[in-house]
């Protein structure tokens, strides 16, 4: 009998797991640099909590992992990391502003397809208790830093729930949510189909033309200069310009999750590919869960999707330190030397199987090491180590001293 992963889920091992760790470690470093603290919550939540965020109600059971426990309680696996945050914030006295990050797996019962899994990693940051656009600005600064760490250039499009609602009201008053749901499909189905969907509902399809033009002056002519949404968009654009965030741009077509967002919404893209993250302001969520009305802004980065992108681009992580191989000395001597170096801050892995030097080089290269340390009888006698740089093929015998080894490993020509 052979066992496989559950449909829509996957294992990551070896270098693949290292790529995901690389993404997560860099995100944690950036999040911590802005004062965000980690938060851990269970993967299993009460179904009532999961249903409270979605307008679908009972229908959401079709989209999530839903089940009953032995006590006949209705439960489900979390489908995002904002729901647990809402529960935590509504049931605890948090010191505001509360800034947290969480990097965890979430679960959705979607149809598995390319780059779409039923279990996938997200990295979320949220700021609770800040009403001003400075919170949205900081989220964009964090986004900039996170993607710089990965060597990727993001393109963030944003819109305002308020502005879009005001615009839709001009065309179909009282049917705002209905129109938003159609507009949310614009990217997937295109202008023609979107217009047809609106016409079927007897709604003026002219709004699609306005949205596709994406002209703030034209929008101002429709909703008026006194528009709260227009002010929000212009103020946020000014903040981004002031802080040289030239990757952030306005898009009146963005209508993601507008049933639950209350202000600015974001979506992160790379080139013309699928979204790799998104978020926005959701000032009513905490009160919907029984807590006090709390200003809230957050963004979620798709770790699993970013992993796929890095992997497709041939990205590989490098193992720090040395892989130690024997040139005819007992493996126990390697272990002893490796242990001594580790106590002095030199990361290393010992070849416990006593491979030949060529096999040791091959193994080290596949695993991602840049340097191999060779220990033979002469090295033991002279208290030296021979280090080979696998990238350029150069090797040198140096004193078995932590500072000398570190100096060699940090040299660009080594």
Structure, explained:
The mean pLDDT is 93. A hairpin with a 5-residue loop joins strand 3 and strand 4. The strands form 3 sheets. The chain has an 8-stranded mixed beta sheet. The chain is built from 16 helices and 16 strands. It folds into 2 domains: 298 residues, Bira Bifunctional Protein, Domain 2 (BirA Bifunctional Protein, domain 2, 2-Layer Sandwich), CATH 3.30.930; 92 residues, Anticodon-binding domain (Rossmann fold), CATH 3.40.50. The chain is α+β, with helices and mostly antiparallel strands. The longest helix is centred in the first third of the chain and has 19 residues.
Give a summary of the structure in a few sentences.
With 414 residues, this protein is α+β, with helices and mostly antiparallel strands.
């Amino acid at each position: 009998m052979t066992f496989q992963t559950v449909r829509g889920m996957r294992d990551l091992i070896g270098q693949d797991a290292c790529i995901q760790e690389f993404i997560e470690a860099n995100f944690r470093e950036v999040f911590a640099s802005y004062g965000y603290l980690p938060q851990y919550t269970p993967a299993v939540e009460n179904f009532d909590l999961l249903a409270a965020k979605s307008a679908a109600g009972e229908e959401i059971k079709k989209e999530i992992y839903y089940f009953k426990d032995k006590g006949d309680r209705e439960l489900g696996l979390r489908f995002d990391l904002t729901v647990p945050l809402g529960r935590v914030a509504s049931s605890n006295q948090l010191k505001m502003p509360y800034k947290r990050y969480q990097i965890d797996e979430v679960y959705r019962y979607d149809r598995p397809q390319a780059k779409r899994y039923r279990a996938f990693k997200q990295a979320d940051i949220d700021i609770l208790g800040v009403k001003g656009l400075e919170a949205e600005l900081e989220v964009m600064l964090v986004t900039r830093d996170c993607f710089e760490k990965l060597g990727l250039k993001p393109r963030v499009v944003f819109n305002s729930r308020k502005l879009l609602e005001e615009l839709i009201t001009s065309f179909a008053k009282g049917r705002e949510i209905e129109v938003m749901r159609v507009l949310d499909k614009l990217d997937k189905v295109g202008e023609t189909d979107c217009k047809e969907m609106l016409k079927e509902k007897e709604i003026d399809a002219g709004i699609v033309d306005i949205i596709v033009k994406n002209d703030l002056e034209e929008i101002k002519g429709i909703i008026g200069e006194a528009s709260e949404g227009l002010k929000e968009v212009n103020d946020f654009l000014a903040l981004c310009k002031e802080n040289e965030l030239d990757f952030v741009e306005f898009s009146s077509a963005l209508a993601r999750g507008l049933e639950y967002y209350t202000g600015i919404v974001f979506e992160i893209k790379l080139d013309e590919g699928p979204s790799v993250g998104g978020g926005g302001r959701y000032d009513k969520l905490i009160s919907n869960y029984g807590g006090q009305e709390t200003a809230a802004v957050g963004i979620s980065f798709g770790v699993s999707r970013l992993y796929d992108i890095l992997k497709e681009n041939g990205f590989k992580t490098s193992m720090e330190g040395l892989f130690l191989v024997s040139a005819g000395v007992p493996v126990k001597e390697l272990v002893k030397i490796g242990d001594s170096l580790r106590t002095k801050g030199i990361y290393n892995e010992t070849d416990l199987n006593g491979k030949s030097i060529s096999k040791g080089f091959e193994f080290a290269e596949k695993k991602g090491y840049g340097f191999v340390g060779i220990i033979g009888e002469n090295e033991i006698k002279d208290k030296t180590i021979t280090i080979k740089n696998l990238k350029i093929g150069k090797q040198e015998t140096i004193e078995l001293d932590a500072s000398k080894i570190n100096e060699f490993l940090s040299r660009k020509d080594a």
